[in-house]
Design goal:
Order of helices and strands: EHEEHH
Number of helices: 3
Shape: elongated
Low-confidence stretches: none
Radius of gyration: 17 Å
Strand content: 15-25%
Distance between the termini: 9 Å
Largest sheet: 3 strands, antiparallel
């Protein structure tokens, strides 16, 4: 991931953009999930969210497109709520505040 070069006075939305992407899943993993989903549906059990690939929340620099943050955002409804919260924070926080709030602790 690329550092957004935080500035305490710059509004995060002027530097960063947030979007949702389908979760990165290998073709083999995707095929296994699809087959598992169908098998479970055939026996009459509803498909659990863990079998579905879900979405990632991706934050990139506007100027270069470099990825600053990628986190699992869950299924579409949950992911949309996370995207709206992220965009609100980008609009209200400085770059430094946003990075401190959203960057995972292990980075």
């Amino acid at each position: 991931m690329v550092s957004p070069d935080p500035d305490s006075r710059t509004r995060a939305a002027d530097i960063l953009r947030a979007r949702l992407e389908d979760r990165r899943v290998s073709p083999l993993n995707k095929a296994l999930r699809v087959v598992s989903s169908y098998a479970i549906a055939l026996v009459g059990v509803s498909v659990t969210d863990e079998l579905l690939p879900g979405m990632d929340l991706v934050v990139t620099r506007i100027d270069t497109g470099a990825e600053v943050l990628r986190v699992a955002a869950g299924q579409p409804q949950e992911a949309d709520r996370m995207l709206q919260a992220t965009r609100r924070d980008l609009d209200e926080m400085s770059v430094a505040q946003f990075v401190a709030a959203w960057r995972p602790a292990d980075d």
